[in-house]
Amino acid sequence: MVDLALQIGGDLSVGPTGDLALADGATLTLQRVLRRLLTNQGDYIWQLNYGAGLGQFVGQPGAPAAIAGVTRAQLLQEADVAASPPPVVTTVAGNDGTVMATLTYTDAATLQTSTLSFSV
Questions:
Q1: Which of 28, 35, 45, 106 could form a disulfide with 23 if both were Cys (CB 3.0 to 4.6 A apart)?
Q2: 68-108 pLDDT, tens per residue?
Q3: Tens-place pLDDT, residues 6-37
Q4: Cα–Cα separations (whole angstroms), residue 79 to 35, 70, 108, 112
Q5: Domain boundaries defined on the chain
Q6: For the chain, what is the radius of gyration of the CA atoms?
Q7: How many CB atoms lie within 10 A of CB 27?
């Protein structure tokens, strides 16, 4: 499937032919994973359980287990992320209170394994 290339927090961009840029495959799955992780539950009124709301953890004392649990649960609900093998989420609390998260998941369509790392 193909969709518009739009990273969360970004803007639409122009593709090589002068039309709107498109995303598919692993890039599209990454866009969907990021949108799901950064969207707060309840923000989509037609799908109230959508979103991990990881932004709620920013500025709070590090909670690696809670971040890992919420992230894993939301990844398992994403249609573009394969349920088998299940996504792996590891979180490590830093001395400064930040939590480093690393996600490893398999794209359901391409069966390509992807890794995403970020700090909360």
A1: 28
A2: 999 999 999 999 999 999 999 999 998 888 899 999 999 99
A3: 677 777 788 888 887 676 767 788 888 988 99
A4: 13, 16, 7, 14
A5: 2-119
A6: 15
A7: 16
